[in-house]
Structures
1.
Amino acid sequence: MRETTEQGYAGVKARGEDAVPCARTSAHAASPSYLLPLIPILLAVLLLLGGCDESVNPRLGIDRPFTVWGLFNPKTDTHAVRLFEIEGTIREVRPEPLDAVVTSTRLGDGAQRVWRDSVVTLRDGDVRHVYWAAFDARTGETYRLAVRRSDGAETSAEVTIPPPVTLELLPPDTTAVTEILLPVAVVGEAPQLPRVEVRYEVVSTPFGGDVSFHDVVVSYQSRAERVAGGWRIDIDLRDDFRTIFLDLTEKEVSTERIVLREMELTVHVGDEAWLSPVGDFEADVLVEPGVFSNVENGFGFVGAGFFEVIRWSPPAPLQDRAGFHVER
Amino acid sequence: MPKAVCRRILLGLVLGLAAATGAAAQTATVRGFVTAAADREPLPGVNVVALREGVLLRGAITDGDGVYVLGGLPAGRVVVRASFVGFATQTDTLDLRAGEIRILNLTLAGAEAELGEIVVEDEGEGGAARLSGGLQSIRPKDLELVPVPDVSGDLAAYLTTLPGVVTLGDRGGQFFVRGGEPSHNLVLLDGMYVHQPFHLLGFYSAFPADIIQRADVYLGGFGAPYSGRIASVIDVYARNGNKRRFAGAASAAPFVSTVRVEGPLMAERVSFLASVRQSVIEDVAARYVAQDLPFRFDDAFGKVHAVLNANHQLSVTALRTHDRGRLGAASAERLDEIRWTNEAVGLRYLVLPRRVPFVAEILLSWSRLYAEVGPDDAPVRWTEFDGLNYAVNMTDFIGGNEWKWGLFWRVPEITTLLGGLFQNVEFGTSRRHKAGVYLEPDLRLTETLRLRVGVIAQLFPGQENTAFVEPRARLLWQRGRHEATAAAGLHHQEVFGLNDRRDATNVFTAWRSAPTDRLARAVHVLAGYRTAPTGWLDLAAEVYYKRLSDLYVAEWTAFPRFTTRLQRASGRVAGLDLRAEVRRARFYAALTYGLSSVRYEAQQEAIALWYGTETLAFHPPHDRRHQLDLRVAGAVREVELSLRWNLGSGRPFSRLFGFDGFVLMNGAVDLFDTADEQRVIYERPFQARLPAYHRLDVSAERRFAFDGFSLTVQGGVINVYDRRNLFALDLFTLRRSDQLPVLPTLGLKVEVP
């Protein structure tokens, strides 16, 4: 986590800002008493002189060159970072090449790769610079990503590739009256689970009404528990049924008969640094520059991770107890 | 406060009042209305004294309705004498019986002032340096001394001269009084609530000088008759209209045109006063100013006043204002165009009962504010605030002391659609009943010392916290030319206005009802001193401190968007006012200085994470540290000249380091496809200050009298040395909006007196 200072972000200093404290005036420079009546006049003059300035400059400037958002994914052969120049004015990103060279270095053996720029067009029509490189990121290896500007300014980050994991369904726990727990084991030494969510595919089948299909996603962020050999996630089917019920009600969908077709658990595995300082990954909190960052001399986050998915349908009696409609 | 304690306090005060009332039965009371002979308008501030063999028994000052009460008079012959500067003194001799309550209405004819008169000091007299415990009373003649681009003055322009009153510029209609928000000001016109009375262009309000009889502005420390707001009170009394003859005026100037008519509907008994103003800025002023001035406003005022008999008066007042304009950059979609309408109608009944020694005021009013932002046909956000207000205000005079007490019942109904402005508050509607009672005796402890101590009990039936008790106190010491005051009080506000102060061009205020366990709260403490070392010089100084809690401010965010969430904040305000005023026959000068510090502490959840502290302390955009205002007026032959120079130190704003993009890395996202947002890398909020504001305005006016009418010609220049005073700066585009440039004005006014 970054440090904070009275001025703002840790280490962020306005260009040209003097780090030397103001020189002290001499304690021996006593004012002659006959100058005392002049003090109010001097103050008034200073006030008036200060009032002459009409200009205002809200831009402090910054020495950090880049903001980098990146992912080293050991399950794919391509790794990517989205790169932003830190600019003094707000404007759309232009497709012209950036003054940036992106490299990655495997710290174990010094193997270095130069990443290629690609200009992608997002769904809203905006363009972005995404640098990428194709190679196998090996489990346990640490990589250093560096983004260098032609004037030598550099932004960098280091990531360590997490080990693979497997997802295993454990026997349901139906002993509690108020809960129906479907435990899932994340087997493997996953350092962090930044995102865990369950997607329910449900069908609304009201009597005499139209059948409609819906996906409802329930977040299990921060609800995974570290256990020996990995993590354990207890999916509460009854509680999730209530969430689905409220979601459909809000969408003005009939909740008379809700049929569960399938459920899908997605577990995102991240490296050790992939940990939100507030638990959840809430954009309004994490948007503050430097709050969630492992980038040196810049902003952003470069992580190493991947995700695993498992799909299944729980037993009909459990669905029934949870509140879903089950054909008898 | 527990209900039991509340009940005990009220019971004690009521029993005290009853005991004092019994004692009053042994003495006599004389009271009545004092009016001007010329038009039958009430005369506030008149000295009325009761004498016996030349010895002063009692003295009183007429209030805003011209009412005086001389209580506690011994039975027998007394001489009642009324005197007022500019009027002939009137004397009447009465034979009073013990327990008698005599109605004696007095009419004063215009004349030269007499010297050596016995004078009772009035707390509410007009004048720039006549500040008494946070109260400044403003008369129409005070308004005329401030140069404005109009032949007549306006209360809004005058308020900007007061130290401690901060505006964000010459547009927007936002007044911050001693650190409070505009929504913290209670504005009353003849007892009616007016929620947003100041027009988009800062010179103008719903209160032109021609309709005002006087305005009492409480900058803090206000008494028990006022409740429901935590910063200030602007209590405006309108004129009643001429009861003897028809009169009127019409004026034209580059910014506004005005028509006023008044006259008797029934001679000596019923009068009317009507005024209509229409802005012409877009059509006239904008043509010769190299600046877009997209402002349009109008207001209409009407009042009928009836003297039912010697001791009953009734008035009906109505007001409507409308504003439309744009403070930001021009856009074809008019997404930021703001429009608001005030409507209010009220009935006021004033009675001096013949058998009980009360002055009773009964108020019944309804007021409504509707404001919206966005295109005409599809506003993106709007707010509607209306409600009924019933009040009974009683003033009793017991043993030489004035006891005020009253009851009120308010039913504000508020509906607001925020259109995403604040993400954690979207839509709300509320209709909450509020009832209350107050008691405030003004106790004359010694010849020189008076203590006014009051208490208000506010009740919210059906709410979680049903009762609030607010103590108020005011101490006044007067001796010769010296006066010292101190005041303190606790204030709550049950409705609050939401503003996004990150953007100066966004003046939309969304009203909401606060949960009763989280009412905005302020504690006021102030102390002042004033003196008149000579007959023409007044000096005043006042220090004040306020503690604010449960305020709502916009959350801080690095997203470059105009929607955010709300967070709670507390604050403190400290300041000093210094005033000097010179009044000579043909020369006037007033110099005021205000030193103020406003600091808020926000309690946003993420602040500890962002800044490493539990709360974020900052100086909000209305923290103007220094204010200096100089007004000089004089007459050269037949021409009246006036000049105003004012200076305000820079207000806080937030600087930024730069811009980048933000990707929410909440998992193994696809960086070729995932959406992102632009981001602002800000410095810590409100660390810098804008340039100082200063401006010189001058005007010259000459009145030509003709048979049956007069013509007034006024010429002036606003911003004489063309200072580029900043109104708003778009941090993202660096586009700057300045306030009015140098602007010559010419106005004409035809008046039938």
Note: Chain A has four helices and 17 strands.
2.
Amino acid sequence: MSVADAPAAATSGRRRARLARFWPAEVLPFAVGILVWQVLSWLDIWPRVLFPSPLEVAQAFAADVASGVLLVNLWVSLKSLLLGFALGAAIAIPLGYLMGLNRASRDFFDPLVNLLQAIPGLAWIPFAILWFGLGQGAVTFIIVMSVFFPVLHNVLTGIRMVQPVLIEAVQTLGAGRAAVIGHVIFPATLPNLMTGVRLGIAFGFRSLVGGEMIASTDGLGYAIFNAQQYFQSARIAVGMLTIGITWLAMDRLILRPIEQRTTMRWGLVREGIETA
Amino acid sequence: MSDLLVARNVSKTYFDTVANDDVVALKGISLSVAAHEFVSVIGPSGCGKSTFLRIVAGLDAPTAGDVLVTGRKVTGPGADRGMVFQEYALLPWKTTEANVEFGLRLKGMPKAQRAAIAQRFIDLVGLKGFEKKYPHQLSGGMRQRAAVARVLANNPAILLMDEPFAAVDAMTRQRLQEELTAITASERTTVLFITHAIDEAVFLSDRVVALSGRPGRIVADIRIDLPRPRQWESLAGDGRFIRYRDELTQCIHENGATRETRKEPT
């Protein structure tokens, strides 16, 4: 950059700073998204019933909140999701560490896991309905089957990536097996465990919506599916956006704070690479 | 016996999957280290010097022979043989302080007591003010200082060092070498130090043991009679230092670099 460019750059930098204060960085991407959406609906390319405007969706959202329908569906879906995730992770995480740390259990479980992991969670819908009947029981079962494999797989990957020198170093400080697992292997696998949790929840959401569309009579997935039957396109969007906002809230309020206090603080993972 | 470490006829043969053949890494190494002695083992790359250190640490098992430390046979890793690695090997999730007191915590020492000991060694290696930093916030030289403090705080019978300064820049390396001689002299630490740098070995040691190319055999065991404390500024041009260095250089060259045992791919 030449000297002559400097004042102009400084001015635009100040302008950017003022803009950033006016549009907090968190809000800007969503504002732009809604604006693009609004412009597209003003252009009137598609019929209203196929492409609802932001305003219509906001009105439908307000109406569904007021009638309580949205919160009931959200509550039903969240219960299935969290229960399904908790059950899936509660089996996958201990099994992952057991397989990663014990050869005999790895040799036994690995072929079974490989056989089952190619089967999508949604493929379990028929059995889920036969075993649990229509309803959230079947949906929860499908979520368990979807959450299980990404969590297990990431725990195993994490264990494979632990640097042997860290284990050897603490062994020469007097660490036995329990200390190696607690002070080295568990924290070292935390970045992958967090990836597994994220993927598990993301897969869980997919199965939640798919499962509710087929195997249930309530929940957000069912609400989306039902709205389509009545050409209520704004309510389809309400259901979709509710899922997105729910995930965003879980990420910002639970997962990110955990990562900021652990893996990021330890320098194991970064936000991104600006220097490259 | 007054020797703190005794290695008797240690040999190591392993199977090289690439060459599809047995490789003799070490052949009949017998070596003693007295208490408070600083002994370096040097040799061309592939001579098995690191393998020897790992056998002493209990991280590898010898194929034949055995190692005694304070009269007890080595059967696995233990706190009496603390090791400093080239890669620092600090735990990234622990601060300098927590890393340094980690060994004491494993022994079940009360918090206040281990904090006091950790602080003493953090001060000793010059990391005062960096107690709460995580390893990724420290420079390479500082990480290695923390790794040395971590082992010393644990009060091992012998400090094992595997090319600890190979990854830091030349200026930092000389500083760390000077600090290490000062610390091990004041703490009266027994040290077994592995390096491929002859001048480093002469500078630091009371004795330098040279290994031949693979399979590693002891080809020289030289007492370094230089006054302490040692500093590069006065020692680098010292005639005795140069003579030790040349003698060891010649010895290693005469006994050849490790022959490549890897077969050509067909």
Note: Residues 1-74+190-266 of chain B form a domain with the Rossmann fold fold (CATH 3.40.50.300).
